[in-house]
Amino acid sequence: MNLLLRNATYIDWKTLDFSKKNILVRPDDDNIQLLPRDDDGIVYPDTEVIDCNGRLVTKSFAVGHHHAYSALARGMGSPKKTPRNFHEILQYVWWTLDKKLDPELIEMSALVTAMECARNGSTFVIDHHASPFAVKGSLEIIARAFEKVGLSHLLCYETSDRDEKVIAGEGLEETETWLQNHQGLVGLHASFTVSDDTLGRAVALMHKFNSGIHIHVAEDKYDQEQCMSGHGRRVVERLSEAGILGSAKSILVHCLHLDERERELIRNSPAWVAENCESNLNNQVGNFNGAGLGENIMLGTDGMHSDMLQSLKAAFFAGQGHDTISYDSAYRRFRNVHRYLDENGFKGDGDNNLVVLSYNSPTPVTKENFIAHLLFGISSRHITDVISGGRLILRKRKIITVDEREILKESRKQAERLWHMINHL
Ligand SMILES: [Zn+2]
């Protein structure tokens, strides 16, 4: 069924131009039709009409780096041994959790992540998945869950050598199986958990499928120290020599502890950087600074939440004093994920992905000050409806594609099961 968003104030996400329009949206048609508001009540066949009088309508959001697999960690107790640094946070928390994930937990994590994305206006997710003892078929499970809720996606399995060799092989096999029939990326955990052999095999897959590598880069000093001692060079030099920076589809996540030479390598490459500043604050690994990295910077959530408006605000506020970030550059980073997807020909992020906002501002909202409203006023609580791929997935603040209450009830049970398994209660 088509959708007509009647009497909307449409904001072009690229130009921030405001116009009063009726918007005709069709499923599976990437383009939308902007029609005059004064249409004399024309009746469009097979069309659901949504009254958008007084509402703002603009392109929905997308997450540049997510970890659906971490969704059931929320509220989990602390590990028995307190992590003293970033490497121990990985060992005691995330690498303990991901080893216990089974198909049921993977599905539940993906479903609740997708529902949170829908509620928060994101219709596209770039995900980085790990479940070392349930690798085979894991991407298919996530894809099905995302699609059930109504999200588009760009998935990868994060291969590493932190578990037995056979598991690294399974990660690469899962990647190959996935890329044979779907859009996706070749995932690697990070330089310090990937041997030269695994790195080479991953890059070979990247070339075979004309894809890119999705990898954490210099999130902590530890990554650089291990690279220097193990490979005699810095992380970005290692990845660059392997050919990873040559792909415009490659995503280098975090990029905190870089020297000038590494920034130059990234700036002069077509590869992308994904900033996740709240995760950096939480892990106390340092602050992101986009200086010298070029224009290909987008924002992610790193699995902490699914709210890109929150990521935008965090990048702007955490960036004060640590980063060269302005209203305009913050907005560009927030929206750059669409440019990444479009320039690389990935499907699922066309103009028929929209968010409807009920934002009754105490001050005028204009093209000139819209970014300030995004930073200081508009939040996810203003989102009333979300359209993904031309179809409604959130209507009047209710997810209409799945039974949210039932899923949350089940996910609480599954979360308890997971916490018992890893003894984090
Ligand atoms: Zn991450």
- Quote the beta fraction: 15-25%
Structural class: alpha/beta
**Number of DSSP helical runs:** 13
What summary fits the major beta sheet?
9 strands, mixed
Rg: 21 Å
Number of distinct beta strands? 18
Distinct small molecules bound, one entry per kind: zinc ion
Give the low-confidence spans.
none
First-residue to last-residue Cα separation = 47 Å
Brief overview:
This protein has helices at residues 86-97, 103-119, 138-149, 165-181, 196-208, 221-231, 235-242, 260-267, 277-283, 308-319, 327-343, 370-376, 404-422; strands spanning 2-11, 18-25, 32-36, 47-51, 56-59, 61-66, 122-127, 152-154, 158-159, 186-190, 213-217, 251-254, 272-275, 297-299, 354-357, 383-388, 391-395, 398-399.
What does this protein look like?
The longest helix has 19 residues, at 404-422. This protein has helices spanning 86-97, 103-119, 138-149, 165-181, 196-208, 221-231, 235-242, 260-267, 277-283, 308-319, 327-343, 370-376, 404-422; strands at 2-11, 18-25, 32-36, 47-51, 56-59, 61-66, 122-127, 152-154, 158-159, 186-190, 213-217, 251-254, 272-275, 297-299, 354-357, 383-388, 391-395, 398-399. Strand 1 and strand 2 form a beta hairpin. The N and C termini lie far apart (47 Å). Strands 1, 2, 3, 4, 5, 15, 16, 17 and 18 form a nine-stranded mixed beta sheet that branches. It has a six-stranded parallel beta sheet with strand order 9-10-11-12-13-14. It has a three-stranded parallel beta sheet with strand order 6-7-8. With 425 residues, the protein is an alpha/beta fold. 38% of the residues lie in helices and 20% in strands. The chain is globular, with a radius of gyration of 21 Å. Helix 10 (308-319) crosses helix 11 (327-343). The mean pLDDT is 96. It has 13 helices and 18 strands. The structure holds zinc ion (ZN). Zinc ion is lined by residues 65, 67, 128, 216, 253, 302. Zinc ion binds at residues 65, 67, 128, 216, 253, 302.
